[in-house]
Amino acid sequence: MAESYTGEPLAAHKKVLWTGSMAHFIQDGFTDMLYVFFPVWQAQFALSFTEIGFLKTLFSGTLAGFQVPASSFARRIGAFELLVSGILLTSAAVFFLGYSAGSPIMLGCILAVGGIGASVQHPLSSLLISNAYTGINARRTALSTFNVAGDIGKLVLPGAAAYLMMQYSWMSVSHILGLFGMGLAAVILLNNRETRPKTNVPEAKTLRAADGYLKWKGNEAFWSLSTIGIVDSATRMGFLTFLPFLLQEKGAALSTTGLVLSLIFAGGAAGKFVCGMMAVKFGVLRSVIITEIMTTLCIFAMIVFPLHAAIVFSPIIGIVLNGTSSVLYGSVPELVVEKRRQQAFAIFYTLTIGSGAISPSVYGIISDFVGIKVCVIIVAVVALLTIPLTVPLKNKFLVKG
User: Fold this and answer.
1) Domain ranges (residues) in the chain
2) With 0-12 CB in 10 A as exposed, 13-18 as middle and 19+ as buried, what is 2?
3) pTM assigned to the model
4) What is the DSSP annotation of 146-197?
5) Per residue in 168-180, pLDDT tens?
6) Strand, helix or coil for residue 264
7) Which of 70, 86, 138, 237 could connect to 117 by a Cys-Cys bridge, CB 3.0–4.6 Å?
C-alpha cells in the first residue's frame, strides 16, 4: 500500500519538508558555488569560455541525465536512503576537487561524479514533499519553501567559498566545504533515525499498465510548462555562468564577484517564495509573463550599468531570475494525475536541468566568437520565448486524480 504523511501528525509533515529542504540547500549550494570557482580555474588552467562552459555542462549534464534513473533506483533502496547517499557523493566530489589542481581532466571527471550525486535530490525531495502536503495551496507553499531552501544554499555556499578563497587556496576551500556537506548528511540521518520519510514510488509495470508514459496528447499543459522550464533554465544557467566574466570586464575583484552572486542568490531566495505566493494569488500565467519580461530587462541593465550600480541592482535581478522556477516547480503536481506525479517530476527536472547543462557550453562557444556582452544580450532575448509558450496553460491548473 502506498504510504505518505497525509494522515500523520503535523510534526511528520515538517520533518519531510525539513529533510527535502536541507538536501536542496546543500545540493543547490554546491551547484552554484562552482560559479565562484570558474574564474579561478580559467586563470590556473588557461581555459577558454567554451571549456568553462563544458565544465559546467559536465556537472549539470550528469545531474540532469541521472534524474530518471535515480527515480527508478529509489524503488530498490528507498527514496530517503538514496537522497542521503546523493548528498554524501556530491560532498565527496567537492572534497576531492582539491586534489585536481594539476589536471583539468581530473577536475572534469570529479565534477561529473558530483553531478550524479546531485541528480537524486530534485525528483525525490519534490515527491516526498508533494505526498506530505495534499492541499493545493499547502503543497504549493511547501514546495515554495523547499525552493527557498535551495536559494539559501546558493546564497550561503558561494558566499562562503568567495570569503574563504580570500584566506586560503581554492583547494583548501573545496576540502572545507566538502566536509561540511558530509556533516549535514550525518545530521539528516540522525534527525530521521526513528522514522524515515517514505514516498509513493509505483512499480514500473503498474505505470505501464495504467497509462504508459506521459505523452503529448492529453498532457499538453504539462509539456508546455516543461518547455517554459527549459527556456527559463537555459537563461538562468547561461547568465550566471558568464556573469563573473562580465563583472571582470567591469573591473570586479573575486571578492566583489562573490558579493554580487550572493546578492543575486539572496534576491532569488526571496523571489522564489514571493513568486510562489504570487502564483497562488494572481495565477501562473501572469506570474510567468511578468517575471520573464523583468528578467530580460534586468539582464540588459546589468550589461549597461557600471560596477557599483550592478552591485546595488543584484538583488532585484535575483528576484526575477529565480522567481519563475518556483512557479513552474509548484505547478507540476496540478497538471498530472497523482500516480504520474513521480514520473512527471523526473521528466520535468531532466528537461530543465538538462537545458541548464547544455546552455553554458552553447553560450561559451558564442562568447568565444562574439564576446561576453553580445552573448549575454542573446541570453536576455531568449528569455522572451517563454511568453507564447504560456498559451496552452490557460485554464489548465486543476488537480486530477
Assistant:
1) 10-193+214-393
2) exposed
3) 0.74
4) HHHHHHHHHHHHHHHHHHHHTTS-HHHHHHHHHHHHHHHHHHHHHHTSSS--
5) 999 999 999 999 9
6) helix
7) 86
